[in-house]
Amino acid sequence: MISGVISCTETSETYEEFARNGETIYIGMADTVLLGEGFDKVRLWIAINADPKITKAILKTSDDSFHHEFDIVRRKSGKDTVTVDVAMEEGEYTLGLFLMDDNGNSSVRTEVPAKVYGELYRKSLINRGVNSLQVEEGVVTIKWTSAANKMAFTNLTYTDTSMQQKSIMVQNDETETLITDCLEGSEFEIISSFLPSPRAIELFESNRFIVEYP
Known about the structure:
By secondary structure, this protein is mostly beta strands. The chain has 2 helices and 15 strands.
């Protein structure tokens, strides 16, 4: 009996410790969170449940060095998917997403790993190279080096014989490009575009590279 009384007393004290500041109310956490990587930003697709109390969200690091709060705007009642772009500095993060109501009650944390690309990444990009550029009977032949990893395509711009700017999209598997209407003495501008990851939401362009008409 004495043992039972002591046990009940300890249990009561433990309960009082957790209930001392009132009952903790949790709201529904995100069903799914998908993240897309952009230039100095991320895009979140947040699948929320039908809990009508969900009105806002907080995205933050555990040390609160990054903290961003935004409204949850439903397009329909019940389950929905909310899309939001969040500006962030270039770097790698482990973020926590918390859904909240108007009274400050929060869901449990949903972990969201993120990598943000920016100017440092863009400056590291190298255009697709030109092995050779030859002219024969007015036809310009550009022979390309192999496309780099994560390169999406290359854009080639030149001036044609009617003094108009023309652009050609050069695919990665294309080894050479023939141009029959190039203005003699003009320049060829080369800019390659990259997708840094399968989750990237936009292309990243390298600095332009100029090749002179031979």
